[in-house]
Sequence to fold (204 residues):
Amino acid sequence: MTIAQHTPRLHRQLPSHWVACVFAWLMLVWPTLAAGDTVKVISARLEQTEDGYQLNADFDLQLSSTLLEAVRKGVPLYFDVEFELTRDRWYWLDDVVVKGSRERRLSYSPLTEQYRLTTSGISQNISTAEDVRRVLSRIRSWTVAERGRFKPGEKMQAAVRFRLDTAQLPKPFQLNTIGSREWSLSSEWQRWTVTIGKDGGVQP
Fold:
């Protein structure tokens, strides 16, 4: 029997549900493989203030013409900055002490020809795409934990990342994001060690 004769028989032996599982897996992982790390975390720091422990972070990101065109055509975009603070546990998974997300909604008004960026219910009008990029690339004074939450000498792991939340796009646009680098705007988790000083402040 030749290889050409034998191959179809092997193909017929493959369960259909197995093929479906492989296809579903590829659909899930392909956007990640295609996108990679499209946003860079330049800096991130946690500090104690009168209002509590606040996060400040800077990101290196670019908004593609495809994203900006979608916004100008009436499709709002949702960006998330996610933060976590964890304690190591040798006997189990890490203890998640703080977990939060700050959402930003970007829309466009044809009447005023301005972008609108809404964060925590507060909106600001922005004239140019470059100014939108500049504002999106910074997080300032985000209170992630109340003052006095942590004990002096406590050591934890902080982590932050930036991403475009494609799950909030209209369904037709969600299909367009599969495998598309232009729609895959995200960073890897940036992690660093946080140590609480005697006064409750964060040591460098």
